[in-house]
Design brief:
The chain contains ten helices and seven strands. The chain is an alpha/beta fold and 248 residues long. The strands form two sheets. The chain has a five-stranded parallel β-sheet, with helices on both faces. The protein has a two-stranded antiparallel sheet with strand order 6-7. α1 runs parallel beside α9 and α2 crosses α9. 36% of the residues are buried.
């Protein structure tokens, strides 16, 4: 059964993540230190799941903040109609580098902050430049990426770096090379990718370590409750207000 093979692959990843718990515990303490110093824990995901998984969730932390990035659609209508791109358009890679720097600067990332970057392959010039810019601002940078997969791919950033080379701390998602996990007779490509599952698993484990460190220091972080309870919207608004007032 393909489903069983997929579950076996996820079980393998789960075992690898268990081995990473000491690293996550240390990193959780470092994040807690920065949050208690007034820092913000930012997240930018270039992959598939973390873009919405970590934010405004029951059981999640109010202190997590996404870095918003809206890509301009230069000449998109003209391209769809078969027209030529607008004259003088910058090189796409240079466009990505500029957009990355502006996104980090607009977010207000500072030396007190933490930024977690998610990218399965880690080769996108955009996410690599965002990590480099966050590092220039003095933030603690974390890369959530598939190291074995990334090692098989040529970097696309002009520096020659992939994400795992541009951040201070690397968290390995242990995703298979190519991301998909299951080979199927009769199909040229593997099926059933694991990167979304493993990235979410690693990220939530790290959140758990941060919560544990904060509680050990006598600090209760703001945690969201499900908005689906009858008083859910009211409690959500109260949680947001508490975080804005206390910063934790």
């Amino acid at each position: 059964m393909l489903a069983q093979q997929y579950l076996d692959a996820i079980q393998r990843i789960l075992g690898e993540v268990r081995g990473d718990l000491p690293q996550l515990a240390v990193l959780g303490g470092q994040i807690a230190d920065r949050v208690l110093d007034g820092g913000v824990w930012y997240v930018y995901d270039n992959g598939h799941l973390l873009t919405s998984e970590l934010f405004n969730r029951a059981g999640g932390l109010a202190l997590l903040a996404p870095i918003q990035l809206t890509r301009p659609r230069f000449g998109s209508d003209a391209v769809r109609r078969g027209g030529a791109p607008a004259a003088g358009r910058v090189d796409p890679v240079e466009e990505d580098l500029l957009l990355a720097r502006l996104a980090v600067q607009h977010a207000g990332v500072s030396s007190r902050d933490v930024v977690l970057f998610g990218s399965v392959s880690g080769r996108s010039p955009l996410v690599v430049e965002m990590a480099r810019e966050a590092a220039r601002q003095g933030a603690l940078t974390i890369g959530l990426t598939a190291r074995a997969y990334a090692a098989t791919l040529p970097p696309a950033h002009p520096s020659g770096q992939r994400l795992d080379e541009a951040v201070a701390v690397v968290l390995d998602t242990h995703t298979a090379v190519g991301d998909a996990e299951v080979s199927v007779p009769g199909l040229a490509e593997k099926v059933l990718p694991s990167s979304g599952v493993s990235a979410a698993l690693m990220a939530w484990c790290l959140v758990g370590e941060v919560v544990e460190h904060l509680l050990a220091r006598g600090i209760e972080p703001t945690v969201f409750r499900s908005i689906n309870y009858p008083d859910g919207p009211e409690r959500y608004r109260a949680a947001v207000a508490r975080y804005r007032e206390e910063g934790i």
